[in-house]
Amino acid sequence: MTLAEVTRALGERLGEDGAGLRGEAAFRYPASHVRVVTREDRAVEFALVPPAKVLFEGRSLFEDHSVWRDIVAADGNAQVVLGFVVLQNLGLTLTGFHDGDDGQLAVTAFEQGRWRAP
């Protein structure tokens, strides 16, 4: 998505939430509990944290913590990398679910090639 498309979908951002590597910038959208990482004029990563509503097959990921196992099964090739469950086939990472750390609960959708297994 372009930044204009992200703004249309999520509304105006709060402001920059830090710069990353590769000329990236991160922005928060408070009402939707979303953090978007951008490079140039496009989104490369969307991270969602509770209380965002994230559904998988009609079930809420953040309300029913057993859902993460079904997401892992749907990917078919999950790997744990630096504390994240990386799902290359789905383009997602999960954190906080596999180790029971509710303070770290998050799901992130990323562009193809962003995460590489060691």
Q: What's a concise summary of this model?
A:
By secondary structure, the protein is mainly beta. The chain has helices at 3-10, 67-75, and strands at 16-19, 24-29, 34-39, 42-48, 55-56, 59-60, 79-81, 84-87, 92-95, 106-110.
Share of helix, binned: 10-25%
Ranges with pLDDT <50 over ≥5 residues?
none
**Structural class estimated from helices and strands:** mainly beta
The total domain count is 2
Span between termini = 28 Å
Beta-strand fraction estimate: 35-45%
Tell the overall outline.
globular
Elements, N to C (H/E): HEEEEEEHEEEE
Number of helices: 2
Mean pLDDT: 89
Question: What's the Cα radius of gyration?
Answer: 14 Å
Q: Which sheet architecture does the biggest sheet show?
A: 8 strands, antiparallel
The count of strands amounts to 10
3D structure, described in words:
- This protein is mainly β.
- The protein folds into two domains: about 1-45, no CATH class; about 50-110, no CATH class.
- About 15% of the residues lie in helices and about 35% in strands.
- It has two helices and ten strands; from the N terminus they run αββββββαββββ.
- It has an eight-stranded antiparallel beta sheet with strand order 1-2-3-4-10-9-8-7, with helices on one face.
- The chain is globular.
- The two termini are about 30 Å apart.
- The model has no long low-confidence stretch (mean pLDDT about 90).
Write out key terms for the chains shown.
14% helix, 2 helices, single chain, 118 residues, mainly beta
